[in-house]
Amino acid sequence: MDFLDKIIKKVEKTTKVVMQKSTDVVELTKVKLAITSAENEADELLREIGSIVYDAYKSGEGNAELVEEKCVQLEKLKAEIEEKKNQFALLRNMKRCPECEYENEADAVYCSKCAAKLSDVVGYEVDDMPGESKSEEVVVDAEAEASDE
To answer: How far apart are alpha carbons 68 and 50 in whole angstroms?
Structure first.
């Protein structure tokens, strides 16, 4: 009966890990979709600004207020995109370089790409991330356990 209890505990533990990892994947996907959506919106704003400036050039008139309004919207979107990219890095247990935006390991002191110092960047750590094992894996050999009984 002890053998069966060990197997049941191992299955329960594995189920919990799988559920956590699937939750992490869902969160990563949500953030990535939010980044893509915000980037698409920023691209559309850039096209609108370009169109306004070009129309003003063709007509000889300027509409600085409308261009400024669109630029303010664009800056807000860019800040949102940065926030989402940092959140995405956080979920992946990484930190982004403030100079080149490269994602480095959470414990890095210098950027692996441009060598900028990362000490001012907050390191993020999320437990139970895919591909990482913080606890020692317990492997149950069913045949060996059965032969012990």
So the answer is: 12
Asked whether residue 114 carries a pLDDT value surpassing 90, the answer given is yes
- Output phi, psi for 145, to 5 deg: -65, -40
DSSP track, 93-104:
TEEE-TTT--EE
Backbone angles phi, psi at 95, to 5 degrees: -135, 145
Tell me the pTM: 0.58
| Strand, helix or coil for residue 77 | helix
Q: Could you tell me which residues come within 8 angstroms of residue 7 by beta carbon, excluding any fewer than 6 positions away? A: 140, 142
Could you say which DSSP state residue 127 is in? S
Look at phi and psi of residue 30 and say left if phi exceeds 0, alpha if psi is from -120 to 50, else beta: alpha
